[in-house]
């Protein structure tokens, strides 16, 4: 089936939404249930900014390097990525399947003096409405949807030709089960037990293939590695065994 023939019925998994709705009020607590995301966020932002700046030839030393760019943060949660991207000048739309997280996101954005368009919606509904963006972020989302290919196809439809999609997820390895599931949930207690379903994790090769099927051109992949001694995450060119992030571009429109 070609990408444009893939059904755009919703890929939302109600059980996954319920997990994160139950934790909505804790999004901005750096020591709460979302502590792993707070720790990971600087690493994610480093990668996102490097890719956007390179793709759109923007100067990261300027105050608002992304003025004029429209960005979708799909699965935005409480806005941990939406807010820093808005500060850098992008016109941000944050979308989430959990309506419970959005009042938290809206309140925090207002307190921070930021204008962010938060919506209780799905990638499929946005695509059906004809929305278009220069950048789509799908960070730690694809492992929680019911149909990854349909989700990625909707994300591709949301991009303007020449647009950039950044997608991060978890590799399906013994290492990821030990660290991201057993370690994070049962040993460290960073996440409630059952937050992740290891069988839904996606290998980099599988993700690249699905991105191509969705009409995208994968251009980069990196690992995101946690160092217990320094208590920090960093980007790795070689270690994609647990967390990893990818960049893909939507091919320019063909001339008539």
Structure overview:
By secondary structure, the chain is of the alpha/beta class. It has helices spanning 14-21, 35-56, 82-87, 102-111, 123-128, 148-157, 174-187, 204-213; strands spanning 70-74, 91-96, 117-120, 133-139, 159-170, 217-227, 232-236, 243-249. It has one domain (3-249): Vaccinia Virus protein VP39 (Rossmann fold), CATH 3.40.50.150. The chain has 8 helices and 8 strands; from the N terminus they run ααβαβαβαβαβααβββ. The relative contact order is 0.15.
Task: Kindly list the characteristics that best describe this protein.
256 residues, alpha/beta, Rossmann fold, globular, disordered N terminus
List the helices and strands and how they pair.
Layout: H1 14-21, H2 35-56, E1 70-74, H3 82-87, E2 91-96, H4 102-111, E3 117-120, H5 123-128, E4 133-139, H6 148-157, E5 159-170, H7 174-187, H8 204-213, E6 217-227, E7 232-236, E8 243-249
Parallel strand pairs: 1-2, 1-4, 2-3, 4-5
Antiparallel strand pairs: 5-8, 6-7, 6-8
């Amino acid at each position: 089936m070609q990408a444009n023939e893939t059904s755009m019925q919703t890929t939302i998994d109600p059980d996954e939404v319920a997990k994160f709705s139950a934790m909505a009020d804790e999004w901005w607590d750096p020591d709460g249930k979302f502590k792993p995301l707070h720790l990971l966020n600087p690493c994610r932002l480093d990668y996102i900014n490097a890719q956007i700046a390179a793709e759109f030839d923007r100067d990261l030393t300027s105050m608002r390097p992304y003025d004029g760019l429209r960005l979708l943060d799909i699965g935005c949660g409480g806005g941990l990525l939406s807010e820093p991207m808005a500060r850098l000048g992008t016109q941000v739309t944050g979308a989430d399947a959990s309506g419970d997280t959005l009042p938290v996101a809206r309140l925090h954005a207002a307190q921070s003096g930021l204008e962010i368009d938060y919506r209780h919606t799905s990638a499929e509904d946005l695509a059906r409405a004809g929305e278009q963006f220069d950048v789509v972020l799908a960070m730690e989302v694809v492992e929680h949807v019911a149909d990854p290919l349909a989700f990625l196809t909707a994300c591709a439809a949301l991009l303007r030709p020449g647009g950039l999609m950044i997608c991060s997820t978890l590799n399906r390895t013994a290492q990821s089960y030990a660290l991201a599931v057993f370690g994070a949930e049962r040993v460290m207690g960073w996440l409630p037990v059952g937050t992740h379903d290891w069988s839904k994790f996606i290998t980099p090769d599988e993700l690249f293939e699905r991105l191509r099927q969705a009409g995208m051109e994968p251009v980069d992949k990196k690992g995101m590695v946690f160092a217990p001694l320094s208590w920090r995450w960093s980007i790795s060119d070689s270690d994609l065994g647990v967390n990893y992030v990818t960049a893909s571009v939507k091919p320019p429109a063909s001339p008539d």
